[in-house]
Amino acid sequence: MKHVLGRGALAAWLALAGAGAALAADPWTIDQSTLDQWAAPYRNWHYWPTHVVPPSPVIGSISNLLGTDVPTVYQIPASNRYYMSFVGFDGRGYQSFVAESEDLVHWGNYRLAMGFGPTNAFDHGGCVIGAFLYESYDIRAPRMLKLRDGKFWTLYGAYPRQGGYELRPGYEGVASSADGLTWQRARSEPILSVFDSDCDPWEKDCIYQPWLVEHRGRFFNFYNAAQGSREQTGLAFSTDLIHWMRYPANPVLRNLKGGYDEQFCSDPKVFRDGDHWTMFYFGVGRGGAHIMAAFSRDLIHWTQHPEPLYKAGGHPRGLDRQYAHKIALVYRPQTDTFYMFYNAVPGGGPTGGRGIGLITSRPIEGTPGQETRSSK
Asked: How many Cα neighbours within 13 Å face the side chain of 143?
């Protein structure tokens, strides 16, 4: 059962979370000059020449993966390694895996993190972890998992049926972990569903991937969802990670007519960035899927930059000729470098040859094969 607040109660909740004036008529539109200034640090980075996680890794006894997707980087307290969750598609559906790395470039030691749910369950067709509870959402902070009630936490995307790629309708669940490597359901029912009484028309056909932000003791779930062939991004709120209420003015990110996100604005990733919030998301429009950005001063009202950060086909070797989307971002202070992982899809084969690509804010020194041509 969903908790639905009236307008006054929701305004009070948002005020406690520091979101401020969230239900005001003024959408807090950010001017183009400011958009350009805030987007500039994330442009013209450097492409790694190959996938850092290939489309078909062999993971234990699993040797039939057709593509990898949806990277998210995290760290575990008391470990000096980096971890990346990602999904693998095997023709039946998604399962979530974890890789590890010491340098954010070379990844290995793959293992299953969360497999298919039970028969007839909302996540039987696949689980997509990655909306982790972090200690900090500052854009330069370590992606350190946060303990809550003695466990680590993630929201996850889920599909009820096996036998195909993202078979509708999708749901979202919540999972926990004792070690940050193996994850289990924390609730037997979905936290968001197309069958909820407060599900609006823009999300009525499928709910996809969440992104979790904790701010001033409140939880924000940014998620993409579909009506027909269009996807947009909405927002839900919680105080306990288990019970969620939708923002009544959803979607917070809308398709822009004629834009690079005319058909999709999906897979949001939100970070605190100085005096504002930055959302990385992917847009579909003008013939491809592209890495894009939107900005907010209050976590509620967002203004999309009309130009992608990285367009499909930007990779010099064609690694993302078809799609460039679904990013993960982490900052490595030792080298003053941002690492942006993304789903790089060249095209061809049953899933387009999709694997995990990498774009960095600085060329990676001392490693053979670095592609130093900047993106345009």
From this structure: 27
Whole-number Å distance between alpha carbons of 372 and 14: 44
Distance CA 374, CA 43 (A): 9
Residue 89: which of 200, 2, 164 has the closest Cα?
164
User: CA–CA separation, 132 vs 148, rounded Å?
Assistant: 12
| Residue 16 CB partners (closer than 8 Å, separation 6+) | 216, 217, 218
Measured distance CA(256)–CA(231) in Å, rounded: 11
DSSP string, 114-133: E----TTSTTTTEEEEEEE-
Of the two residues 374 and 256, the one the predictor is more confident about is 256
In 3D space, the residue among 334, 329, 345, 252 whose CA is nearest the CA of residue 298 turns out to be 252
- Determine the pLDDT at residue 365: 77
Q: Which helix (H) or strand (E) holds 338?
A: strand 337-345
pLDDT tens column, 1-58: 344 445 555 666 666 666 654 444 455 889 999 999 999 999 999 999 999 999 999 9
Angstrom distance (rounded) from CA 155 to CA 186: 10
Residue pointed to by tokens 């993630």: 154
Give the three-class secondary structure for 307.
Answer: coil
b/e sequence 82-115, b meaning 16+ C-beta within 10 Å: bbbbbbbbbebbbbbbbbbbeebbebeebebbbb
Cα separation, 126 vs 167, whole angstroms: 10
Query: Domains of the chain, with CATH numbers?
Result: 7-360 (2.115.10.20)
DSSP for residue 181 = S
Tokens linked to 337: 């470098």
Q: Which two tokens stand for residue 100?
A: 């590890």
Which of these ranges, 2-11, 206-215, 235-244, has the smallest mean pLDDT? 2-11
Three-state DSSP class for 36? helix
Residue 57 to residue 68: CA distance in whole angstroms = 8
CB 280 within 8 A of CB 222: no
Q: Residue 334 has which token pair?
A: 């030792």
> pTM for the complete prediction?
0.94
Q: How far apart are CA 228 and CA 226, in angstroms?
A: 6
**Cβ 159 vs Cβ 93: under 8 Å:** yes
